[in-house]
Design goal:
Blueprint lengths: L3 E3 L2 E3 L5 E6 L4 H11 L6 E5 H5 L5 H5 L2 H18 L4 E4 L13 H14 L4 E5 L9 H13 L3 E7 L7 H13 L4 E7 L3 H14 L7 E6 L4 H6 L7 E5 L9 E2 H15 L1
Parallel strand pairs: 3-4, 3-10, 4-5, 5-6, 6-7, 7-8, 8-9, 10-11
Antiparallel strand pairs: 1-2
Length: about 270
């Protein structure tokens, strides 16, 4: 798997980098959450902007308003100041894929594009499918190219909150999203039993051999927690930990996850 550098961080096979999602609903709460998160053992943050925008009434009208845009930039700037430039993922996810907003792809992309243009986000997390389980491949590729034009990376994501995709589907999705130009392919499935999480990790090992785009493979749910620790050994480069509210079922508290990673990867060396 090819290594990926973001600022001073190297994303590669081995001990995965810890990302903590920020889920505050207000500017004040977001910055409070950031201050708490940076005290924890983490390598990067993810601003889940859908939690912020999800609190707005008449959302689509407001996101067309420059005041909402300026507030978003102020939040990004404050996050950057509080973290002294720690790598940041910007995510705005619809309700159909575990998010907190009902918003069409155009409006969501406009906000993501603005975050990329600001220079304050290192990755934009984009969902492959719309909330109605459809997608326009040419539109997705064009959006990724535009984000790249702002010198920002793209994490292209697929989530299944009901089941674990088969190894064949995992392989097909990974190839598809790599072909669209993603810098990182993220696939999250739901594990009904531990064996499904183990199979996902083994599939990641196969799919990351050679000079290929990095992946994040997550088995959600209690039975999938092993993927959040052992996945890095098979090529999954980022693992998400909670500091307060979880954004995915089965997330482990950041300090506890760091201890588990230390123990697991010390045995690997």
């Amino acid at each position: 798997m090819r290594k990926l550098r973001v600022k001073e961080l190297i994303l590669e096979e081995g001990r995965p980098k810890i990302a903590i999602p920020i889920t505050g609903r207000t500017h004040k709460q977001i910055i409070k959450d950031v201050r708490e998160a940076v005290k924890k053992p983490c390598d990067m943050l993810e601003w889940r902007a859908d939690y912020f925008f999800g609190e707005m009434d008449s959302l689509e009208e407001k996101v067309e308003n420059t005041d909402a845009h300026m507030e978003m930039i102020r939040i990004l700037d404050d996050i950057d100041y509080q973290t002294e430039g720690m790598p940041l993922i910007f995510t705005i996810r619809g309700r159909g894929y575990g998010g907190r907003v009902v918003m069409d792809r155009t409006h969501a992309y406009d906000l993501a594009s603005l975050a990329a243009q600001s220079g304050l986000a290192d990755f934009i997390d984009m969902e492959l499918f719309d909330d109605d389980d459809t997608y326009d491949p040419e539109q997705v590729k064009a959006q990724i190219r535009e984000i790249h034009g702002f010198n920002t990376g793209v994490i292209l994501s697929y989530h299944d909150y009901e089941k674990m995709p088969t190894p064949e589907i995992l392989a097909g999705l990974t190839d598809l999203m790599r072909g669209m130009g993603a810098d990182i392919v993220k696939i999250a499935g739901t594990a009904a039993k531990r064996e499904e999480a183990v199979e996902m990790i083994k599939t990641a090992e196969v799919l990351t051999k050679g000079d290929k785009t990095p992946v994040i493979f997550v088995a959600m749910g209690k039975e999938g927690r092993i993927s959040r620790v052992a996945g890095g050994a098979k090529g999954s480069v980022i693992t998400f930990a909670k500091c307060g509210e979880q954004t995915g079922e089965g997330q482990i508290e950041a300090a506890a996850l760091s201890r588990l990673l230390d123990e697991y990867y010390s045995k690997k060396n």
